[in-house]
């Protein structure tokens, strides 16, 4: 039996009896029962490291590791050992899989468990397990497998909700009770999370982050905010993925699935019994989808969308062709549209049958009778209060996180290389989309893994860097959808809806892309 050892720091390797001395040297020794691999160099301030392992066991087991003067928090490293066993007949060689050992796991804190946060956590877990990242490019069939360094990692997700909520499905969730039940899945029912040995979820909210000490305070859900009720987490890496705060009914305000189902049910039943119809105020993407889904699910309902400008999607940097096609599809879906007028006021009235109704007045002096008014025009606010005041240099004037192309915090901030931000709360080009958030999550997971390699080996990290994102959109309008991509232009139709959203407004597409239904295994 021949024993080989490889050093993760200098990549030196050798067989028993070999020795190399110098600034980056190794010595491999063998005794009757134990082999020793010793490497002496200084990528970190310790004098040497020694790895001992059995030589007569078929399954390699590291039984002792000796490190001297290793700084706290940096005892993360990789050891690969290979056993070559020769047969007496064919002389074939059997290679055992590479093993990983690590004194302490890297601790990663992810603030927010929506598209971006889950993507960062799960892709990082994949990489640390030696797997291809689930949201990355798919390996070419037959191509050699590129092994990645493996690390022990503890990932903590702190989320205000008790489960994964399919945010882009809100327009349908607030129109169909069956879909509402599907759109919110508690974390304990998400296999990729609940079955993971590396990920835990805390139902609560992060209140503050100290970049210098790498600590965060959080308040568990249901407790009154006070110093005695908050707890502290320490971390090696942080991912800010808390998204935007949006008001009702743009998104549900519930933080528990059970509460959400009551909230959605009340809203749906109120719309179902609306004899005079529903008015949706706001012609952005949310308003368009909200009006169209309501009309699709309840075709007997009178639905009117009101927009203050002469074009829908007026705040988005999109060609007029996209905006005109959106209006065309909305009218085709049976939604009434009033353009270039604003909501002035509403007043409760009694209709001809002596029942309560709402008189909706517009700035052009006209009015209509309705039973429900849904506002889809409120300005969303980044959920970044926990990162401190704008004076820290992390946030811009509107509260968005300023990031580098690696998704890391600004370089002038403390420990910036270990702090990342993704998704809707970052200041970056492009329209806010769930696809963009998942893409950023994959990049963040990769770049944190690269930082782990740098810490473990001194090797310069190879970061994935985010390009400027051009304006693009996929918008569901009833049974059809309109899409725009600069390279291909505008497309619309039922086939576009199927490609972008499937049969459930993108729930299955997102669920599968994130691999939430199963946990990848080695």
Describe the structure.
It is a single chain. This protein has 522 residues and is α/β, with parallel strands linked by helices. It contains ten helices and 32 strands. The strands form nine sheets. A seven-stranded mixed β-sheet has the order 16-15-14-11-10-17-28. Helix 1 runs parallel beside helix 8. The protein is globular. The N terminus is likely disordered.
What is the tally of beta strands? 32
| Biggest β-sheet: strands ordered side by side in the sheet | 16-15-14-11-10-17-28
Q: What are the segments in which pLDDT stays under 50 over at least 5 consecutive residues? A: 1-99
Main sheet summary: 7 strands, mixed
Radius of gyration, CA atoms, in whole angstroms = 28 Å
**How far apart lie the N and C ends?**
27 Å
Amount of helix: 10-25%
The total count of helices amounts to 10
Proportion of residues in β-strands:
25-35%
Return the structural class: alpha/beta
Principal-axes geometry comes out as globular
Mean pLDDT: 83
Pfam families: Pyr_redox_2 (PF07992)
InterPro entries: FAD/NAD-bd_sf, FAD/NAD-binding_dom
Organism: Podospora pseudocomata
Domain FAD/NAD(P)-binding: 106-441
Keywords:
FAD/NAD-binding_dom; alpha/beta; 28% strand; FAD/NAD-bd_sf; 5-stranded antiparallel beta sheet; FAD/NAD(P)-binding domain-containing protein; 522 residues; 7-stranded mixed beta sheet
């Amino acid at each position: 039996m021949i024993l080989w050892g490889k050093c993760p720091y200098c990549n030196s390797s050798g067989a028993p009896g070999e020795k190399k001395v110098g600034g980056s040297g190794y010595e491999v020794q063998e005794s009757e029962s134990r082999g020793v691999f010793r490497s002496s160099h200084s990528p970190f301030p310790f004098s040497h490291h020694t790895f001992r392992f059995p030589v007569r066991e078929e399954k390699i087991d590291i039984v002792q590791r000796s490190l001297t003067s290793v700084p706290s928090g940096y005892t993360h490293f990789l050891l690969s050992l290979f056993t070559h066993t020769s047969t007496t007949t064919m002389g074939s060689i059997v290679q055992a899989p590479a093993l990983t050992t690590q004194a302490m796991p890297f601790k990663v804190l992810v603030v927010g468990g929506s598209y971006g946060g889950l993507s960062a956590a799960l892709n990082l877990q994949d990489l640390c397990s030696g797997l291809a990242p689930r949201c990355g490019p798919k390996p070419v069939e037959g191509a050699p497998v590129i092994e990645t360094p493996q690390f022990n990692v503890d990932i903590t997700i702190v989320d205000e909700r008790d489960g994964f909520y399919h945010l882009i499905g809100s327009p349908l969730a607030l129109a169909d009770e069956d879909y509402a039940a599907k759109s919110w899945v508690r974390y304990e029912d998400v296999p990729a999370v609940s079955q993971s040995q590396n990920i835990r979820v805390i139902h609560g909210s992060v209140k503050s982050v100290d970049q210098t000490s790498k600590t965060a305070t959080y308040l568990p859900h249901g407790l009154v905010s006070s110093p005695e009720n908050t707890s502290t987490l320490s971390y090696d890496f942080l991912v800010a993925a808390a998204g935007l705060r949006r008001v009702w009914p743009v998104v549900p305000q519930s933080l528990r699935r059970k509460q959400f189902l009551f909230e959605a049910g009340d809203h749906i039943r109120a719309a179902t019994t609306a004899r005079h119809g529903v008015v949706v105020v706001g012609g952005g993407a949310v308003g368009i989808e909200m009006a169209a889904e309501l009309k699709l699910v309840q075709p007997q309902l009178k639905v009117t969308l009101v927009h203050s400008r002469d074009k829908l999607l007026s705040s988005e940097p999109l060609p007029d062709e996209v905006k005109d096609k959106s209006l065309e599809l909305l009218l085709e879906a049976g939604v009434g549209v009033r353009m270039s007028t604003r909501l002035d006021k509403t007043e409760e009235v009694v209709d001809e049958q002596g029942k309560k109704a709402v008189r909706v007045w517009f700035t052009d002096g006209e009015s209509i009778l309705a039973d429900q008014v849904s506002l889809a025009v409120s300005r969303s606010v980044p959920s970044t209060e926990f990162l401190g005041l704008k004076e820290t240099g992390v946030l811009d004037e509107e509260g968005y996180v300023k990031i580098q192309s690696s998704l890391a915090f600004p370089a002038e901030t403390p420990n910036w290389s270990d702090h990342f931000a993704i998704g809707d709360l970052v200041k970056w080009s492009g329209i806010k989309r769930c696809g963009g958030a998942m893409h950023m999550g994959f990049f963040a997971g990769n770049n944190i893994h690269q930082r782990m390699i740098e810490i473990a080996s001194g090797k310069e990290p190879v970061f994935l860097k985010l390009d400027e994102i051009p304006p693009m959109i996929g918008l569901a309008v009833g049974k059809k959808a309109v899409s725009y991509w600069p390279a291909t232009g505008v497309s619309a139709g039922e086939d576009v809806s199927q490609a972008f959203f499937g049969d459930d407004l993108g729930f299955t597409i997102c669920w599968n892309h994130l691999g939430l239904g199963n946990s990848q295994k080695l």
